[in-house]
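Below is a typical protein record.
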Amino acid sequence: MNKLRKMAVFARVVELGSFAAAAADQNVTPAIVGRHVADLETMLGLRLINRTTRSMEVTDAGQRYYHGCKAMLDQLAELEQNVADRKGVGPSGIVRVAAPEGMGTLLMDAVESFQKLYPQVLFDLVFENDQTDFVGAKVDLAIRLAISLEDSSLIVTKLTDTRLSLFAAPSYLERYGVPTTVQELDNHACLAFGGSRFGDSWPLLTQTGLHKLRQPWRMVINQTHIYREALTRGMGIGLLPEIMALDLVEAQQLAPVYLDDRFPEVGVFGIYPNKAFLPHRVRLFIQHLREHFRRP
């Protein structure tokens, strides 16, 4: 077999963690997999994988070679897909997306409408609030909310903007009233999101600039879906990006609370690894997200 085939087999050994698993994945025998890896090592004059009868360990040289192989194979696959697109064959393959778990409903809506246009594109969705390890998680695209976002090792593109706003259940506001000033918040149950990038405070825009607003929090919650549930139960007032509360406002489970002072806008960013050949299906989905977020 040609060198590209050997590289592809080697990459699957690294990704799956064993020669037997790679053999099953490639529908060949473990002996053939071993031969391909040995051929690469002979050509390179380097040991790529240390193996015994019971275990294997990828060497430092093997790790470097794997990342190079993976990039080259991805570019080849994307080139073939782009050529197929020009022949009228739609995009296909998997798009792996990481996003804050509070954007689950919104992202699912976007994926659903995208797959109606491109049914051959599959999705692997990871909902978490932590920073994404693109290499370890094998993520194509991460969605993040921030006032500003800069990382020279990644490509950052803005998808839309959304404002931070206070929200509470209609039942809570009927019982305790609607605050209109920061001072009136002292008489209300304020709930904080523990996973916020702003720490134990709310960022407040005043005439003198951005200030940190701290309250005697009635409750601190570090999961967005639980935070939203606490608000819909009428347990207090909380701060959310408007884009994460749209569905609950439309369902009349939450209502916005507007103060004399305002909270800042945050950007919704798409982030992807700095690689020269971004898969066409990922580019299409990024553009689809921009259009989806612009819809009223």
